[in-house]
Specification:
three-stranded parallel sheet; 6 helices; alpha/beta; globular; Rossmann fold
């Protein structure tokens, strides 16, 4: 049986810390266990080098954004190599093969009608790189995840028609009860989908 294991791809706005190491160690342990069981296992980790907070961090350090991203990404890779993390690939979102894969996936979804261009306006947290509805904000201003101040941002962007897949997702969860793990979170995920996907 083939297994695919991945860590988050870590933002390069700062060097690796204990939280990055924790998730990487867990993924590495899982990958090693699957290999010991005889399963063909592909283990991916790497860095995400796109985002406003990365640009801001580079500016704070007085460096070109890509040079800063190269330096921080290297600290992640060097650390994982020092810990002998058994990854199959260390990916960077600035890698040519990554960009080609993203373009291929984007065009396939675009041609299918799942991607559309529109405007979005809302409360944006730069640190979390996330828009939040006003109902989720703390004291009508602060990010519910990190507690930092949000700002109103309006931008043109491409969107994925996730709403087209609500029924298919719910049926998949019903047909595959072990798909959502831990099982204690299954109702939470199902109710989120039933609440309407935008």
């Amino acid at each position: 049986m083939s297994k695919y294991i991945t860590t988050p791809i870590y933002y390069v706005n700062g060097e690796a810390h204990i939280g990055h190491a924790y998730t990487t160690f867990i993924a590495d342990t899982t990958a090693r266990y699957e290999r010991l069981k005889g399963n063909e296992t592909y283990f991916l980790t790497g860095t995400d080098e796109h985002g406003q907070k990365i640009e801001e961090s580079a500016q704070k350090h007085g460096k070109d954004t890509q040079i800063f991203a190269n330096e921080i990404s290297a600290t992640f890779k060097d650390l994982w190599d020092e810990f002998e993390i058994s990854y199959s690939k260390f990916i960077r979102t600035t890698d040519k093969d990554h960009m080609a894969g993203v373009q291929k996936a984007f065009l396939k979804m675009f041609d299918k009608g799942d991607i559309y261009k529109d405007f979005y306006e809302g409360h944006y947290c730069v640190s979390c790189e996330t828009f939040f509805p006003e109902t989720q904000l703390l004291d009508a201003e602060f990010c519910p995840d990190c507690g930092r101040s949000t700002s109103i941002v309006k931008e043109e962007s491409y969107f994925f028609k996730l709403s087209e897949y609500e029924d298919k997702l719910l049926k998949h969860y019903e047909d595959n009860p072990d798909f959502i793990m831990p099982r204690s979170r299954a109702n939470e995920v199902k109710n989120f989908v039933k609440g309407g996907l935008r």
